[in-house]
Amino acid sequence: MVYLMIKELSPSADEVIIVTSSLMKDMNSKTDMYRANAIRVLCRIIDSTLLTQIERYLKQAIVDKNPVVASAALVSGIYLLQTSPEVVKRWSNEVQEAVQSRAALVQFHALALLHQFTHLKQAIFAAVRTLNKVASTHPLAVTNCNIDMESLISDQNRSIATLAITTLLKTGNESSVDRLMKQMTNFMSDIADEFKIVVVEAIRSLCLKFPLKYRSLMNFLSNILREEGGFDYKKAIVDSIIILIRDIPDAKEIGLFHLCEFIEDCEFTYLSTQILHFLGNEGPKTSDPSKYIRYIYNRVILENATVRASAVSTLAKFGALVDALKPRIFVLLRRCLFDGDDEVRDRATLYIKLLDGEATVGETEKDVTDFLFGSLDVPLVNLEASLRNYVCISALLQF
C-alpha cells in the first residue's frame, strides 16, 4: 500500500529524499516483489540526474531471472522514454534479450518498449524521406540540412541511412563528390542489395550532373561491381555504367575497360551477353579497338554456349568495322567452327562468309554492316509465332 500511495502522489525527488533513499535500498532487496515495486515507484519520482545513477540497476533488472522484476523495469522504461529518451535508448541490447524471455509478460513489455524505439525512428524516417523527395526537385532548399544528414549515415536503421546518403548525393556540389565517395565505401558493405540499388541510381544521377567527376564515380561503380551481390544489384551497376558511357563521351574508354574486367568473372549469363552486345557496338569506335579482342575471345574459350555465341557476334562486329583487325578476326572465327554448340558454329560460318563477301552476289560492305548492327524488320513475337507454326507443320508432315 505504501508503494501504491507514493506512486499515485508522485512527489519529486527533492521533496522526499528519505523516501527516494528507501526505494533505492529496496531495489536491492532479496524480496523480488519489493524490488519490482521499488523500481516502478522510483522511476515515477526521480529526475534525469538520479536516473543516471541507477541506470545500471535498471539494465540488470531488465534481464533479471524473475519475470516480475524484468517486467517492472521494462514498464518503467516505457514511462521514462517520454522524459529521458537518451538514457533509455542505451538499453536496446538488454531489451532485445528480454524479447527472448520465456515469460510471456516480459516478452510483451519488451516488444512494447522496442515498438516505442521504432516509433522515435519512424518520425526520423518520415522526415528524411520527405527531404529526400524535396531534394529531387529543389536540391538547394535541402542543402542546409546536409550536416545533419551526414550524421545519419551511420544510423542503425539502414533505411534511414540510405535515404540520408542518397539525399546528400542529390544535394551535394562538385567539390563534395570525393568526400562523399570515401564515406560510401564502408557504407555499401553494411546494407542490403535493395538499398544498394537505390544508392547506385543516385550515384548515376550525380555523375550525369557533374560529368567532370566521371572518373572517381566510375571507379567507385567498378569497385562495387566486383564485390558480392545479386543479379538485380549487378544489373543496376552495369546499366548505370552503360548510361554514363553513352552520355559522357570522355567516360567511354574507362567504362568499357571496367565492363571487360567484370565479364572475366561474371556469373550471370544475361549480363555477360548484354555487355558483349554493347562492346560490339561501341568498342570498334574507340582509339584502340584491338585491346578488347582478348576479353571477347576469352568468352569463347571459357563460357557457356549462350555467351560463346554472343562473343562470336561481337568479334564479327569488330571485323566489319575495323579493317586492320579483319585478318585476326578471321583466324578467331575459324577456330569457332569446331565449337561443340550448333549455334556457335552456325554463327561463325555465317560471319566468315559475310565478312569475306561470299554470302550473296553483289553484297556491299554496307549490307554486311546493316546486317550485323541493324535491328529486325519484324517484331520478335511475330517471328516466334511463325517459327512455332513451321515446327508444328513439319511435325505433322512427318506423320
Give structural attributes.
single chain; 399 residues; elongated; 23 helices; Serine Threonine Protein Phosphatase 5, Tetratricopeptide repeat; Leucine-rich Repeat Variant; mainly alpha
Mean pLDDT: 83
Parts with pLDDT < 50 across at least 5 consecutive residues: none
- What is the succession of H and E elements? HHHHHHHHHHHHHHHHHHHHHHH
Level of helix content?
over 70%
Number of domains: 3
Strand content: under 5%
Number of helices: 23
- What is the rounded Rg? 33 Å
Tell me the number of strands: 0
Largest sheet at a glance?
A: none
**How far apart, in Å, are the first and last alpha carbons?**
98 Å
The class by helix and strand makeup works out as mainly alpha
Bulk shape: elongated
Structural commentary:
It is built from 23 helices and no strands. By secondary structure, the chain is mainly α. The protein starts with a helix and ends with a helix. The mean pLDDT is 83.
Summary of the model, kept short:
The chain has 399 residues and is an all-alpha fold. The protein is 74% helix and 0% strand.
Which secondary structure elements does this structure contain, and how are they paired or packed?
Elements: H1 2-9, H2 17-26, H3 32-45, H4 48-62, H5 67-80, H6 85-88, H7 92-99, H8 104-137, H9 139-142, H10 146-151, H11 158-171, H12 177-188, H13 193-209, H14 214-225, H15 231-247, H16 252-263, H17 269-282, H18 293-302, H19 305-321, H20 326-336, H21 342-355, H22 365-373, H23 380-398
